[in-house]
């Protein structure tokens, strides 16, 4: 079915300039956090030049401190399938025009198309930006299955008591997941003074998580549940909540619940903020094939990993985003035609077509965080890939 995609951006994250590498170096240790650099991270990345984007998107771990998401000994197979009947020149042209470094199409668990460019390869990792939000959401489903969290209807303040007395009083975990908290927020990627650009720039009280310190200062705008507003800071709060509930870092819990049992092929890397907290709303670096495996995991329902029915609930429209046919679930976007997916600024995406059992993952370095023309081009090309797959 034909569909039209979201043009809104979904992420925040950053790094400084680095060197392109298809064989990532060992990640820097979390204890090496450079607070001054990380406080400028949000604003910096939004105004990088293209050379910095090209150099650093596949090399975040060579520049920033973070945690390793360790793989296990077993790898979930992605065998070759029948090659997608699509002209190779048109694929190359799309990737060149859209600064796409990696593209993979998996159908029924088999790879039908896999292509790399711009110095990237299957041995590398690429930053996720807001694609990480869907991974963080998955950890909520895992924590419910494990009994660390009772229900998404519980109040956020139960797990983050430092938010008591703030705009988050009376806000449920579900409302945080669907970004309907009612708390005021500015996600304008072109505004250096926006919340998304400056949330790490303020001094943080001793002993307090920097995300919590910022978010508890924000005023209430509408009643909880009344309005959807996209807020990267709230996914960061979800990450804090999961860490507090499980008493584990997001990276270690992701390794325990997804990377090792499902059989991801390569270690991943999760950037940390100045307190050492993995940043729930962004900054997870993953190989292209493992992005595709995440889609395969979701299609399979995540039995033994997340609570029963979690992905069915998470990938259904729960918030009206003001565009007919589109919606927002638990940190997953929903599209016409029963499609859903994860997206990040500068062209990162995982698209899932459950009807045809298709997963399409892309890693890119767009020249802008968000751009309607680039979004339309990607949507049209994804549709072309789906059409080829279902011939």
Please summarize what this structure is:
The chain has 391 residues and is of the alpha+beta class. Helix content is 32%, strand content 13%.
Describe the structure.
This protein is an alpha+beta fold and 391 residues long. 32% of the residues lie in helices and 13% in strands. It contains 14 helices and twelve strands. It has helices spanning 35-39, 41-46, 50-56, 88-97, 131-146, 156-159, 173-177, 195-198, 210-215, 232-246, 250-263, 288-299, 310-314, 372-389, and strands at residues 66-69, 100-107, 110-116, 126-127, 268-271, 284-286, 319-320, 327-328, 333-334, 340-344, 348-353, 358-364. The strands form two sheets. The chain has an eight-stranded antiparallel sheet, with helices on both faces. Helix 5 packs parallel to helix 10 (232-246) and helix 5 (131-146) packs across helix 11. The longest helix has 18 residues, at 372-389.
Which terms would index this structure?
globular; 14 helices; 8-stranded antiparallel beta sheet; single chain; disordered N terminus; alpha+beta; 4-stranded antiparallel beta sheet; 391 residues; 32% helix
């Amino acid at each position: 079915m034909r569909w039209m995609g979201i043009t809104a951006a979904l992420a925040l994250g950053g790094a400084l300039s680095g060197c392109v590498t298809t064989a990532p170096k060992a990640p820097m240790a979390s204890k090496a956090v450079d607070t001054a650099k990380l406080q400028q991270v949000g604003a910096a990345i939004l105004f990088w030049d293209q050379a910095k984007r090209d150099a650093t998107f596949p090399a975040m771990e060579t520049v920033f401190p973070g945690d390793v998401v360790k793989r296990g000994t077993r790898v979930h197979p992605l065998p070759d399938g029948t090659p997608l009947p699509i002209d190779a020149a048109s694929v190359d042209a799309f990737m060149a025009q859209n600064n796409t470094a990696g593209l993979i199409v998996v159908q029924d668990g088999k790879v039908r198309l896999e292509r790399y460019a711009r110095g990237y390869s299957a041995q590398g990792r690429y930053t996720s930006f807001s694609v990480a939000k869907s991974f963080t959401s998955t950890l909520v489903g895992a924590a419910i299955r494990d009994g660390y969290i009772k229900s998404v209807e519980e109040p956020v303040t139960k797990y983050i008591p430092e938010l008591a007395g703030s705009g988050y009083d009376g806000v449920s975990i579900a409302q945080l997941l669907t970004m309907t908290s009612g708390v005021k927020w500015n996600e304008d990627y072109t505004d250096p003074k926006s919340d998304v650009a400056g949330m790490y720039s303020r001094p943080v009280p001793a002993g307090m998580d920097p995300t919590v310190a910022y978010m508890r200062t924000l005023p209430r705008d509408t009643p909880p549940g009344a309005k959807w507003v996209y807020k990267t800071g709230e996914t960061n709060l979800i990450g804090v909540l999961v860490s507090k509930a499980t008493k584990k870092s997001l990276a270690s819990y992701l390794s325990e619940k997804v990377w090792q049992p499902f059989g991801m092929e390569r270690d991943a890397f999760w950037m940390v903020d100045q307190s050492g907290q993995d940043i729930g709303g962004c900054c997870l670096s993953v190989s292209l094939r493992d992005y595709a495996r995440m889609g395969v995991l979701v299609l399979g329902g995540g039995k033994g990993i997340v609570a029963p029915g979690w992905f069915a609930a998470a990938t259904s429209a729960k918030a009206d985003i003001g565009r007919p046919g589109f919606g927002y679930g638990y940190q997953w976007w929903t599209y016409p035609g029963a499609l859903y997916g994860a997206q990040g600024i500068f062209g990162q995406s995982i698209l899932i077509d459950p009807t045809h059992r298709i997963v399409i993952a892309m890693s890119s370095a767009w020249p802008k965080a968000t751009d309607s023309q680039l979004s339309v081009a990607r949507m049209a090309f994804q549709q072309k890939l789906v059409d080829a797959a279902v011939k």
